[in-house]
Protein: DUF1566 domain-containing protein
Organism: Alteromonas hispanica
Amino acid sequence: MCTAIFILSGCGGGGDSDSPPNSSGLAVNAGPDATVTEGVTYSLSGEVTGGDGTYTYNWSSSPTLDITHEDNTVSTASFVAPSVSEDTNYTLTLSVNDTSGNTRSDSTIITVAPVNIAPVASIFVPQWEGLAENQFPGGVDIVLDGSGSSDADAPSQGDEIASFRWSQTAGINVITGVDTHSPTLSISTPVANDPQVIEFQLEVTDSEGASNTTSVSLSIQSETQTLPVADAGFSQGVFSGEVIILNGQASTSIASDDTLTYQWERFGSVLSSAGNSSFTNEASSSNADVSISAVDDSDALSTFAIAPLVSSPTVLTYTLTVTDANNNSVEDSISVRVQPMPTALINDTGFVDQATNNAITKVQQNEFPGQDGQRGADIVGKNGLIEKAGRGLAGFDFTRLNANGDEQDADAQTWSCVRDNVTGLVWEVKTDDGLLRDQNFTYTWYSQDDNGGFEGDEAGLAASCTLANCNTEAYVAAVNAQGLCGFFDWRMPTHEELFSLLHLGLKDVVAVDADYFPNTGALSNQPLWYWTSVPSADGVNSDDAQNAWALDFDSGVDNFLNKSTAARVRLVRAGR
């Protein structure tokens, strides 16, 4: 901080007091006019003559200044010249009173001049991964950023730099037609047979007219040095037999070299309690089946693989190699953690098709990952990596039981029940003989217990069957009286249990495996409703549940039906 001390002489700011003469002879001189620079401490000192010799001094300013005047019995005071952007006049007035009541004043004009600190130009250069500092491939877009330039004495924040001006000082011209008066400069690096050096200069000017420049030099690779770009996609976690999505991305910034080739390879390591062991594309001794995972189309950019059958958690590395016409190759990899397929406690949906944004297809859809058709027991079964106790479509696993409840061969022509080896449930099989379990018989919903406050329709007048009362409770009692398959604990299935039979991947047929569940019913323009044991809170009348849940074995949807509705029944027993 500079300090300037000015002792005001008796001649005053113009030589005379601002107030008219009076009989006391009191006269004031505020000192001469002066010019000081911003930030300087300026000392004020006036002179007084006449009066009764005892004075009180007061300094004021227009425009206002922060004046330090600690003792009003003396004239000396000071102020710090404020920051200004141009010469600014301040009128300093000294008013004096004596004890006799006489008052006189005088003014002086102090001009504060700005001191401009030059701005600092700065260029931020984004770096290219894998290359040296300020080195770039040919044909890529980069942005040089000068917005970090600063001005220490800017009049206000956000108003540091008044103008930017970019220019190119060396190398192949890349700024023709480019905006060179913005804080940033967007360029495309040149493509040439030989390496290039291009230089740029940034000149910044502050609001007070001072300027500063800085430069940057960029090294640009030749056409043959510039490598393609490879992105192997995202790492994943899957179960054995599920789809591994290999959806790579590749590009080159060299327009004349747009012929790229691709190659996927797989490497991995088995994670076991005994420690880690590694393998390449050969089978691991501790996990021999891991080698069966092959890439569907290893020289395609977007393809897939089937997760191998493993007995312990396994990490596979899939590496994408991209090669350009100059034989430049780059690699990128993803990690895929493969877990042994857990023992299923419920069936999958049966759906193995996949969807685009406008179609259903059997083709792998890498652009739409995470679909039902890419995950779960059904796709694992389709890929042949489920060991079944029986047989069945997709991930379903069924075993036929005879009239005594004993297992039958899968090709047996007659059977009475089916065991679901996934859920452990044993299901009734419908008949087509006009007897008790005929496929065409229907029942109203009725239960004396667990009925939601309303037992339902006992008479079953809307239904059709061989019983006196065609309702669900009567049907359960009749089947248990017969001891179907040697069992006497048949019951109505819950919503979840009945839904576990639905095969939603089937088209134009009933939504269940007909090889194990024949006589489910014929498709028509009406739903193929089967009752569950679950009453529905919808349709409540006086706090009584008038409805119950049912499933449509045509569409696979569920809904609540009035308990007096006629619908089919498939009984169940046991379970896990």
